[in-house]
Amino acid sequence: MNDPYVARARSEGYRSRAAFKIKEMNEKQKFFKKGSRVVDLGAAPGGWSQVAAAAVGSTDANPLVVGIDYLDMDPIPGVILFKKDFTEDDAPGLLIEALGGHKVDVVMSDMAWPTTGHRATDHLRIVHLIEIAADFAIQVLAPGGSFVAKVFQGGTEHELLHMLKRHFNTTFHIKPPSSRKDSAEAYLVAKGFKGSNVAENAEEER
Ligand SMILES: C[S@@+](CC[C@H](N)C(=O)[O-])C[C@H]1O[C@@H](n2cnc3c(N)ncnc32)[C@H](O)[C@@H]1O
Known about the structure:
The protein has 206 residues and is α/β, with parallel strands linked by helices. It has one domain: Vaccinia Virus protein VP39 (Rossmann fold). Helices cover 39% and strands 22% of the residues. A 7-stranded mixed beta sheet has the order 3-2-1-4-5-7-6, with helices on both faces. Helix 2 runs parallel beside helix 3. The longest helix has 22 residues. The model has no long low-confidence stretch (mean pLDDT 91). Bound molecules: S-adenosylmethionine. The site of S-adenosylmethionine has 22 residues, from helix 3 and strand 2.
């Protein structure tokens, strides 16, 4: 009701008001460059993919954005979409294959499970989603790449934050202006991926 972002989304042709969250974050953090490859986890109904496709210049002839959601989505020009649960074993491989096996510049996740109302359960479930998204990002990002993921109050688990700090030059939380003030939602941003060799070395150190 009276949400200016809903009206703006409609008039600017975005499928969701969520589109403004990645738009605002990108304006500040400049994740997307022309030609960047982007993976969108939890993409439905498609606002983030729309913003990413426009920003990187993705087209049907040369698609640079791939999205996944277990919900149905209408096609988006320049975006390859999979209807699938990202936690399934074959999901990561499908996403990378769709981008021709290339490394990725941005992994973004707006994934959230419907809440159960049981705080501890909800917390564990979101932490799990962030962890698998972060593991995926570390495997597929090109050096210099970025990872953006929705988190909730309680912030990011200490261990995950520590792991990300090893692999990225900068790691921080932001709440874009379009994220509802009364929502516990925020975004974790990790920028400047140090490269897979660093990742492998860090794994060996464990
Ligand atoms: C907040 S919505 C995303 C909105 C989207 N960023 C946009 O701009 O339109 C979160 C989405 O995550 C999806 N999701 C949650 N868990 C998922 C999973 N395990 N695999 C795939 N999609 C998932 C949900 O189905 C939901 O559509």
